[in-house]
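Quick entry, no commentary yet.
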Amino acid sequence: MAEPTLEWRVEEACLNAWPALREVLLDGWVLRFSEGLTRRANSANPLRPVSRVNLRACEGLFRRLGLPTIFRVLSLIDPLVDERLAEAGYTGEGESCALYAPIEDTAGVRDPDVTLLEQPTAEWFGAMAALQNHSSEQAATYRRIVGRLAIPAAFAALSGGEGAVALAYGALHNGLLCYESVITDSRWRRQGSGRRIVSALAAWARDEGAVGACLEVEAHNAPARALYDGIGLKRELYRYHYRREPANTVVTKM
């Protein structure tokens, strides 16, 4: 059996770094359900270069859980899938890309002011909820998602005068560091806080034997793209977007 390409290795690492609360495997897709928190954790994702989708079966599973049916359409799969979804009235949104760099090309620097934790604390979760402006329900779901991580991870925090000013975590899978939940307090942006926290995670991953680093980001998020370009994540491996079921579809929870 052929070895997975770098693109599919990165995709696998990113799925494992942001797990779903529930999953169903269906004809080369993994359907992910996480109470509506983020599209990535509440969408159907291809596991290989698929060329078809069982639309009715997918819709039935999402509707069973009271969620809109969303497909994450990778540029790595057959374009016919996207065409069929468009014909069925599914609208496109969230154009994003996967970035990659060999670990030796990343600006990994240990930083004494960045705290790295093996497990997230209540304080780390509280700071993340505040910076992401999560409701109490969203914060609880976020904690449950992160709690399902089965791969090694480090949880980073950079503190300022009034608490955490930047947060992120990195998860390791099959030699790849995947960045997740990178966020900076708006009052501290353009002061290098984001760069410091992702650089500290790169240094940690390098010490843990990582050979590459990756992440997924919205394609048109210029500040984020500039940050990641600055630490060496310059190579765009593939793109994806979402297809959401028509707005007039009635979703009822069973």
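second:
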Amino acid sequence: MSTHFALMWTVRPGTEEEVVKLFESYGRPDHVIKDENGNVKGKLLATTIFMKDNVIVRVIEFEGSIIDVAPHMGRQQAIRELEEKLDAYIEKPRDMSTPEGARTFFLESAMRTVVTRRWDD
């Protein structure tokens, strides 16, 4: 069974189109979720980005644990490049260069899953 995880944040007003272009052109991460030793821990199934005005919501669907997904994504070159470019547009500065800074961003930006309904449930 898959799980969804969502993050929400804002970009500076007036930068929305540049941010859309960044998301439209960023590379794909490895969809096989691995730990730092290369052990398979799950699979990234989908990523969806929503934007309304200057609010962005990134939803990922995955198999496995979010505890394994976050560091896996942090090791992905495509994601690191995108995050670095996004920093120029984000309304509230964040520090993704340290585990503590990333943890703070995730705690402040994470959205709670209220309900997921599937056709086969």
